[in-house]
User: Which sequence fits this backbone?
């Protein structure tokens, strides 16, 4: 008797596999996310065969420093870790209309001008639509080949025949493998399609970029295992109605993670922003209360941003709290610290009462920062707005705040102070524990503080 195929159920949210249907996924807890798919038992059994492969001792493994391929887009190369690694697989995710296809088409143009053969496979747009966008970006040469196809068998045959150096897949959710019985975009199709592309990339040494759609939560649609399979995961962030975009690396096997590249969307495509600190501070008001500059480190790059805060008496029974660009719960924690602030020398409470005030915190420029080093700047911006005290425009502050009001040290303090000095700041307030590491920096006043009360005194002290 021939063996029957087996029905299994995959979760469309997390990729978990179960033998029976359930209303709730036992792994991630999502409701109505399990879908039925057919698995060939013979193929599963064949994959499960034990081979005669033997392990290799680590001392016998030879390494090579293979040259990277530069995209000639410095911000993109920074996020990739220095350029494209041959044989690597890069996943680019982002909201619809954010600029993923535009960035990759610009990358194709720069690679083609450098003599690199590129194959651009689109499953969403026609050749005419791609050509219209290409004409807006600039001139192309004959090194770029276009293919509008969604069948992976056809794509694999074309890749093996043309042998491009770089392969672009836009997008992975539109690709389908005839060996998988489910519809394009399903969990099985996305996983198996990525597996086929991974094999092509690794065996033939082709650098592959795949575009992934994102869910409403901001993660790449499809199984979570997709991000584990690829070498690099990049997210395109920002409001598509605003001009600035941030390309963030959240996973990179060939470089540091959390590197960012800043771009500005224009009529001719995405333009690099080489000095994001000056851009983020452009238009900052002078002598305004509740406004202060801090320094955040994204990967290896220090970026100066403006923290804005507005404190006003509430008209409702429960005061409102709002945070844009930073963690809402972190802001509530800092408000509680300010209310319990103490003067260690006088051994008395000197906190400010904010229980009847609405508090709004915003990071100007549309950037989002989750680094705890901006804690002290957020707290001082709230204090400045509540006390109606303007802060010197040439003062910068950073540091992490603990629950007892202590100011804790942060990493890369020297790079942060040097960035402030480069942009013309005259005074920087930092954690006392970091003061020794920046002692050799001249030309800028450095003030170390041990707690929030000392930071308030240093900020309001007149020279």
Assistant:
């Amino acid at each position: 008797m021939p063996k029957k195929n087996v029905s299994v159920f995959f979760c469309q949210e997390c990729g978990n596999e179960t033998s029976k249907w359930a209303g709730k996924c036992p792994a991630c807890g999502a409701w109505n996310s399990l879908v039925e798919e057919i698995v060939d038992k013979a193929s599963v059994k064949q994959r499960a065969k034990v081979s005669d492969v033997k392990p290799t001792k680590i001392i016998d493994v030879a390494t090579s420093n293979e040259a990277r391929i530069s995209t000639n887009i410095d911000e993109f190369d920074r996020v990739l870790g220095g350029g494209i690694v041959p044989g690597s697989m890069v996943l680019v995710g982002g909201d619809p209309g954010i600029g993923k296809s535009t960035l990759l088409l610009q990358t194709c143009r720069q690679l083609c001008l450098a003599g690199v053969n590129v194959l651009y496979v689109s499953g969403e747009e026609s050749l005419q639509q791609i050509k219209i966008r290409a004409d807006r970006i600039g001139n192309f040469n004959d090194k770029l080949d276009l293919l509008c196809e969604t069948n992976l068998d056809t794509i694999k045959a074309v890749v093996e025949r043309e042998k491009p150096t770089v392969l672009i897949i836009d997008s992975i959710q539109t690709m389908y493998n005839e060996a998988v019985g489910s519809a394009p975009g399903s969990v099985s199709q996305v996983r198996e399609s990525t597996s086929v592309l991974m094999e092509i990339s690794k065996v033939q040494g082709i650098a592959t970029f795949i575009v992934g759609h994102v869910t409403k939560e901001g993660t790449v649609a499809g199984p979570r295992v997709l991000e584990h399979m690829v070498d690099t995961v990049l997210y395109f962030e920002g409001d598509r109605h605003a001009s600035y975009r941030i390309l963030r690396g959240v996973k990179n096997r060939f470089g540091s993670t959390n590197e960012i590249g800043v771009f500005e969307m224009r009529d001719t495509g995405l333009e690099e922003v080489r000095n994001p600190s000056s851009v983020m501070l452009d238009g900052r008001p002078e002598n305004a209360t509740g406004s202060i500059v801090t320094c955040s480190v994204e990967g290896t790059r220090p970026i100066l941003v403006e923290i804005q805060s507005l404190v006003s008496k509430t008209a409702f029974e429960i005061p409102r709290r709002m945070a844009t660009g930073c963690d809402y719960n972190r802001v509530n924690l800092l408000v509680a610290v300010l209310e319990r602030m103490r003067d260690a020398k006088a051994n008395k409470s000197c906190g400010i009462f904010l229980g009847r005030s609405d508090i709004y915190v915003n990071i100007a420029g549309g950037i989002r920062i989750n680094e705890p080093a901006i804690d002290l700047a957020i707290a001082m911006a709230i204090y400045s707005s509540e006390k109606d005290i303007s802060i010197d425009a040439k003062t910068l502050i950073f540091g992490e705040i603990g629950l007892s009001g202590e100011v804790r040290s942060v990493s890369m303090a020297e790079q942060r102070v040097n960035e402030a000095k480069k942009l013309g700041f005259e005074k920087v307030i930092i954690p006392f524990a970091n003061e020794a590491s920046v002692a050799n920096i001249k030309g800028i006043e450095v003030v170390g503080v041990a707690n929030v009360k000392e930071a308030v005194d240093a900020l309001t002290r007149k020279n």
Remarks:
- The chain has twelve helices and 23 strands.
